[in-house]
Amino acid sequence: MKSAKNNNKFMGVLAMERIYKHIEEYSDQEIEEMLERQEVEELMYLSLSVGMYHHNWKFAQDICLRLAQHENPIVRSNAIMGIAHVARTKRKLDKRLVKPIVLKELRENKENKGTILDAISDINLFLKWNLAKKHN
Q1: In what helix (H) or strand (E) does residue 75 lie, and over which residues does it extend?
Q2: What are 4-56's pLDDT values in tens digits?
Q3: Pick from 40, 34, 50, 131: which is nearest to 85 by CA?
Q4: Which of 3, 34, 47, 121 could form a Cys-Cys staple with 82, CB 3.0–4.6 A?
Q5: Do 102 and 80 meet the contact criterion of CB atoms below 8 Å apart?
Q6: How far apart, in whole angstroms, are the C-alpha atoms of residue 22 and residue 113?
């Protein structure tokens, strides 16, 4: 496994082979440009970035929920992890919006189920929710 040294910041994970990469912080303009370009390589990390760094929990949540609808399963699973980062960093999410999307990904995104379960565990921990308890 490759790993980057970076003051204990969470690194993004791609596909089955784990590749650790520093997650950059992006401005709102950069975020919008990335969403317009729709480049999978960028989108895989975007939700992790906004979840960790964006000051507005609602904006970060909405970007992650949008990316959770993407056709690429890695973009979707990282979007769920981005939601978990919002839970960890801001201690706030809109459960009525988040819960159905997270549970849908758990059911349908089989190849990234481990990442999604880890994200659900974090959401449950930081927000005192009980999502998908039968899977834990």
Answers
A1: helix 73-90
A2: 333 334 444 444 566 778 999 999 999 999 999 999 999 999 999 999 999 99
A3: 50
A4: 47
A5: yes
A6: 23
Torsions phi, psi for 21 (to 5 deg) = -140, 140
Q: Read off the pLDDT of residues 20-29 as tens digits, 9 standing for 90 and up.
A: 789 999 999 9
Residue at token pair 């959770």: 68
Judged by phi (left if over 0) then psi (alpha if -120 to 50, else beta), residue 97 lies in alpha
Tokens standing for residue 2: 């490759």
Which of 8, 18, 4, 35 lies closest to 115, judged by CA? 18
Token pair recorded at residue 8: 């204990």
| Predicted local confidence at residue 113, as pLDDT | 97
- Whose CA is closest to 67, among 95, 39, 26, 96? 39
Q: Phi and psi at residue 48, in whole multiples of 5°?
A: -65, -40
- What tokens does 69 get? 């609808």
CA 89 to CA 116: how far, in whole Å?
A: 18
What tokens does 70 get?
């993407």
Which pLDDT score, from 0 to 100, does residue 136 have? 54
